[in-house]
Specification:
Layout (H helix, E strand, L loop, with lengths): L4 E2 L9 H7 L12 H15 L5 E5 L2 H10 L7 E6 L2 H12 L3 E6 L8 H10 L3 E7 L1 E2 L4 E2 L2 H8 L6 E5 L11 H4 L3 E5 L10 E6 L1 H9 L9 H8 L10 H17 L1 H21 L14 E5 L6 H12 L1 E2 L1 E2 L8 E5 L6 H17 L8 H10 L2
Parallel strand pairs: 1-12, 3-4, 3-5, 5-8, 8-9
Antiparallel strand pairs: 2-10, 6-7, 9-10, 11-14, 13-14
Helix pairs in contact: 1-10, 2-10, 5-6, 11-13, 11-14, 12-13, 13-14
Family: Belongs to the class-V pyridoxal-phosphate-dependent aminotransferase family.
GO molecular function, one term: alanine-glyoxylate transaminase activity
Keywords: Aminotransferase, Pyridoxal phosphate, Transferase
């Protein structure tokens, strides 16, 4: 028997409380029984996103939230500034172009974070830019972008909104939507919120809702105005993913018990222990600066294939981590410490990496990285 461990940056493990809640008999999405369920989820998401405004709940993956963030607030021909620093930055560009936005990119070497001054300069040069699109945590590179500073820049422009893909950052990082001035904040269920895939969340500022009044891009399923109207009645526009929303309430209950600050600190601590343990093994980080607390991206040792490391973790030791994407495929492997993750998830991951690398012929002393992680994670 090979016991399985899920240490990928999505899907992430689901707590037993949420699994048990989702195993209960299904209820109808238009019945009175469901109204308080959605009401509780709605309020919990506002708490998590630190906003007084609605956080829409969509039956889709996080990419559906990204699509909705383009077609609900922009019109064909509108200018978009995209921070392209990884696989998901590239996705912003593809979605914007699919809806015929005029895209300007700030291209950044993978593994590095955007310099907010570059965004500031681009907006000063062309104030007609309607939207700035960025990831909070670029999952493919393990980089966190400085959302607080970016928001402080964009909020100075009355006709520009900041759209943040926080799909892998939500719960791992402190993202203060109202205080900082984030206009559109997108999350997904299968990351920090510790649920199966299938839900996207979109927080929308008052400023962004004004953009929605003027947007002319086509929309039907992802129609945020209709979703907002439905949410006011504790409903969704179409069939609600009832089981997932029931599970969402359980996950939010767990996070409320832990507390937001404690959740952020836990992710930072797990991230730091992972990085330091990996460095102790003589490996280099793919992430050159501003590491994400959700996932650690690691360069494969010279002469080794990152995809083979990822494959061996899964096949030999039952650990599903992640390989590289796009231009980083074969060069890196990634370990997540996101959502329902704790001390021994990191220690297990580091122990397995040591065993895989030694088994592939890389010289190291077993236990070196584990010892570092243990020291940093002791309470």
């Amino acid at each position: 028997m090979l016991k399985r461990y899920l240490l990928a940056p999505g899907p992430t493990p689901v707590p037993p409380e949420a699994l048990l809640a989702m195993a209960m008999p299904i209820i109808h999405h238009r019945s009175p029984d469901f109204l308080p369920v959605l009401d509780s989820a709605k309020k919990g998401l506002q708490w998590l996103c630190q906003t007084k405004n609605d956080v829409l709940i969509l039956c889709s993956t996080g990419t559906g939230g990204m699509v909705g963030a383009v077609n609900n607030f922009f019109s064909p021909g509108d200018k978009a500034l995209v921070v392209n620093a990884g696989n998901f930055g590239e996705r912003w560009t593809k979605i914007c172009k699919a809806y015929n936005l005029s895209v300007e990119e700030i291209k950044i070497d993978w593994g590095r974070a955007v310099n907010p001054e570059d965004v500031d300069s681009a907006l000063k040069k062309d104030p007609s830019i309607k939207g700035v699109f960025v990831q909070a945590s670029e999952t493919s590179t393990g980089v966190y972008h400085d959302i607080k500073t970016l928001a402080s820049i964009v909020r100075k422009y009355e006709n520009t909104i900041l759209v943040v893909d926080a799909i892998s950052a939500l719960v791992a990082h402190d993202l203060r939507m109202d205080e900082w001035g984030i206009d559109v904040l997108i999350g997904g269920s299968q990351k920090g919120l510790m649920l199966p895939p299938g839900l996207a969340f979109v927080g929308v500022s008052d400023k962004a809702w004004k953009f929605a009044d003027k947007a002319k891009s086509p929309k039907f399923y992802f129609n945020f105005k209709k979703e907002r109207e439905a949410l006011a009645k504790n409903q969704t526009s179409f069939t609600s993913p009832v089981t997932l929303i029931i599970g969402l309430n359980e996950s939010l209950k767990i996070l409320r018990t832990e507390g937001l600050e404690n959740a952020f600190n836990r992710h930072e601590r797990l991230s730091r222990a992972t990085r330091e343990a990996i460095k102790a093994l003589g490996l280099d980080m793919f992430t050159k600066e501003s590491p994400s607390y959700a996932v650690t991206a690691i360069n494969a040792p010279a002469g080794f294939d990152g995809q083979e490391i990822y494959k061996n973790l899964r096949v030999k030791y039952g650990i599903t981590a992640a390989g590289g994407q796009g231009q980083a495929k074969g060069k890196i492997f990634r370990i997540a410490h996101l959502g329902y993750a704790g001390t021994f998830d990191v220690i297990t991951a580091i122990a397995a990496v040591e065993m895989v690398l030694k088994g592939m012929g890389h010289p190291l002393k077993l236990g070196t990285g584990v010892a570092v992680a243990q020291e940093l994670l002791m309470v």
